[in-house]
Write a structure and sequence with these properties.
Blueprint (H helix, E strand, L loop, with lengths): L13 H14 L1 H6 L2 E5 L4 E6 L15 H23 L5 H5 L6 E9 L7 E11 L3 E10 L4 E10 L2
Antiparallel strand pairs: 1-2, 2-4, 3-6, 4-5, 5-6
Amino acid sequence: MTRQPPALSLEFEDEFVAGLRAIFEEKIVFNRVLGLQVVSLRPDKVVGRIAMKPELVGHYLHNRVHGGVISAGLDAMGGLAVMAASGARHMEEPPLQRLQRFGKLGTIDLRIDYLRPAVGDHFELQAEVLRLGSRVATTRMEFLGADGKLLACGAGAYIVS
């Protein structure tokens, strides 16, 4: 598969960034429950953070983040990466019009590989779009420990039309 070149020089308007952050962190209730925060939002890569809290751990997991939390976090970040890439593709539209495009975004397929136990006080999640088509986008995601060690990785496909 040929990767599409990222739009590295493109910067989003403050209004678009604030709107996308509000959708992701506040309006998507599950992201709010996870405590998922946007750290960096670029057209070619998004970065998020989850702080460890008791709700994320099962009693039998000995302070390890539950795999469902990892999966949900990576899925959310894949969707955010698609939103950023799509927003960059339609820069001729006003920021609010671009933000309205995301109502139809949905996960088609998700694969997560758990590589190591997720133990720590916080975690970084990264995602990038490998291909943004007119109807389907594919992404690659990573779940990293505070020390930068790769704990899980994933791939997702999202409907964008």
